[in-house]
């Protein structure tokens, strides 16, 4: 039986959403090998821009979405996180953002907090997924 698709969380703050959509469109093929979970607003934009992706939305970040994704990391249901953070704007849910990135560290998942790191991580996990598929064939 083939291994279940791994899950990537995609999250972007408002000023980084355009960058996230561009990133996801450029890598739509690679991302389609994974299940995507996304915070509400980010997920809506991605679903519209990238029809090839299976996106499971949670609540919007400020309304609990970051905490939902944090819980999924703690439960082992999210294996990678790509989070385009805005380091230059104050956030009402700053504590949730901190809690989420903290759990990414606690559970030691590959976690990209900017585009440069996201490019590197996506390349690595795509190669890993392809190797697993080949080994199972
Ligand atoms: O605020 C966020 C992450 O902290 C993102 O939430 P949205 O995708 O709902 O805007």
Automatic annotation (TrEMBL):
Entry keyword annotation includes Lyase: yes
EC numbers on record: 4.2.3.3
Reactions it catalyzes: dihydroxyacetone phosphate = methylglyoxal + phosphate
Record keywords: Lyase
Enzyme category, top tier: lyase
Active site residues per record: 66 (proton donor/acceptor)
GO molecular-function term, one example from the UniProt record: methylglyoxal synthase activity
Binding positions (substrate): 13, 17, 39-42, 60-61, 93
Domain annotation MGS-like: ranges: 1-137
Signal peptide interval: none
SMART domains tied to this protein: MGS
Pfam families tied to this protein: MGS (PF02142)
GO terms, biological process: methylglyoxal biosynthetic process
GO CC term (a single one): cytosol
Record-linked PROSITE patterns: METHYLGLYOXAL_SYNTH (PS01335), MGS (PS51855)
Family of this protein: Belongs to the methylglyoxal synthase family.
HAMAP family xref list: Methylglyoxal_synth
Summary of the function given for this chain in its UniProt record: Catalyzes the formation of methylglyoxal from dihydroxyacetone phosphate.
Name used for this protein in its record: Methylglyoxal synthase
